[in-house]
Protein: cytochrome-c oxidase
Organism: Wenyingzhuangia heitensis
Amino acid sequence: MEKEQFYYDNKVVKKFIYATMFWGLIGMTVGLLLALLFIFPELTQGVSWLSFGRLRPLHTNAVIFAFVGNAMFAGIYYSLQRLLKARMYSDLLSKINFWGWQAIIVAAAITLPMGLSTSKEYAELEWPIDIAIALIWVVFGINMIGTILKRRERHLYVAIWFYLGTFVTVAVLHIFNSLALPVSLTKSYSVYAGVQDALVQWWYGHNAVAFFLTTPFLGLMYYFVPKAANRPVYSYRLSIVHFWSLIFIYIWAGPHHLLYTALPDWAQNLGVAFSVMLIAPSWGGMINGLLTLRGAWDKVRTEPVLKFMVVAITGYGMATFEGPMLSLKSINAIAHFSDWIIAHVHVGALAWNGFLAFGMIYWLVPVLFKTKLHSIKLANIHFWLGTLGIILYAFPMYVAGFVQASMWKQFNPDGTLVYGNFLETVTQIIPMYWMRAIGGSMYIVGAFVMLYNVIITVKKGAEVEDDFTEAAPLQRVKKGRLLGETWHQKLERKPVQLTILATVAILIGGIVQIIPTLMVESNIPTISSVKPYTPLELEGRDLYIREGCVGCHSQMVRPFRSEVERYGEYSKAGEFVYDHPFLWGSKRTGPDLHRVGMKYSDSWHFNHMLDPQSTSPGSIMPPYAWLLKNKLDKSDTEKKLKAMATLGVPYTEFEIASAQKNMDAQADIIADNLTQDPSFVESYETAQAEAKAAGKEFVPIQEREIVALIAYLQRLGTDIKTK
């Protein structure tokens, strides 16, 4: 049979590699800045867009979607063409995929520091960007499926199964979790509320880790590890079990992020059961990856690519052992809300994703530029800097997590907390934060070493753009199995059926967990005393979201003796029915705030935002001076109330029409309370005189953002009677 001649598209692969390194260094550098803010809280004092709360989602989005996302696209675009013996379906779609994805990253880099955030973890971007993500993802899917349909290779290799599973599942997760009602171009509210929003978010959040950080990289592992080792995959049968069991079980595990919360017990228990089962397929994949190196371990000593890949697969194994362990209720009770989780997440991100991406880049760049890597020695230096950086990052965070859990739960013989002041915990773990910053710095230095090495390699490489190749066209086969073909091999040459089956496998878990929680009212018992937020409280809640307060403060008191003693009555499902979105949080750098309402005076909250150290000695919270100066924007308040009413919050037309009047009345009460503080009156009058002398507009205190935030904080947890 006559072979067809064609070129593989290397240009798009190179672009994604460059973007991977560029955004990776930016995302990691922002992460280092955040680590330093734990040690020097006032490092970016006065600059709102450099505050911790606004930069944290930028860091997570940059690392997940910019660094890992671009690495994923680079690896898929390279391997897919070779595995299918076909150029990508459309060069135009490849370009749209690349430039569209970079535009989305730039949009995130602009909007998140501005405070334009939905607050939903790993899904903070506002609705116009969410739509853009969906469109670019569809472009990627069309390009991939189009290439599969015009392939010259009959059976789909295991890596492609993972690519297809990734495409389908990320699309489903992103669309359903991002459903929101827009108020304006820059503001929207989640269509789900409270418990339901939490379940949908962590169904998405856990599976964003599963199907964006894991399954595509498993596909890359199945392609690049055999290539780098020049060995076949250890077990074809194990890869089949690995793929189908992993995508089916993973989708059920989201509720393990919500153990001991107001989520119904049946959903929590389902999450635990499937999370524990996850260890089997996860370790099956790790074993398949490591045993692929059988007979090639001598190369690991000398080849940096294999060093990175071995540590990456080992990191995957560690993270996927720890994940199921953390989902056990007894362990989760200790680890959740602590720095233990930060250590766990970064073992996965830095070792599994980071090192596999680095290994892939070190293998791809010399191949794409028809040359040798500039310096094996520099690559080895990068490896050891990165490995030691991971250890120095993760180990102190584990220690910090154990210290936090221990101190939070200790009681005196008389029944009082040994460490009643939350800040006693914070001051104990500052040395761990120093070590984390040092470890992170080493990891970033290693990445810069790689950047230098790659630049020199590219400069001395060939100018050849695309690879020339030839392959015989695929011949159609009649219905039924080919001679000697197993049932799964038959499925491997039917990409549409394989994709449909993968979609069914991932939909089952989501449907079983989410539909009953949305439809069966008994899952969320109502509480008659719970009322909607006032207009001023709603504006204050939006400020709380804008400043990223949920990144450091939880709003979920779990039913533990230690938490009830420290914070107050444990949280009930019915308290969150008007919360669009939910704000339960996932980390306690500061204390839980669900029962903070009326615990302190308005003046205390004002001074706490002005200078946290003045009210809480030892606090590592930065000051929020701009909240005390900025005039509250009330132009969209009525639109916000109407949107909430559309989502089922019982605001009447009269309440919406009276919003401005009600806001002014509540703001006046808070302003009067503030004027009871002599120090406030003195500074307020001085500022007023200075503004008058300078001919500047003076914003009365009742019109400032801080008043709305105080109104919201004073409302928290006061809807039910507590001791």
User: Anything to note?
Assistant: The chain has a mean pLDDT of 94. The longest helix spans residues 376-409.
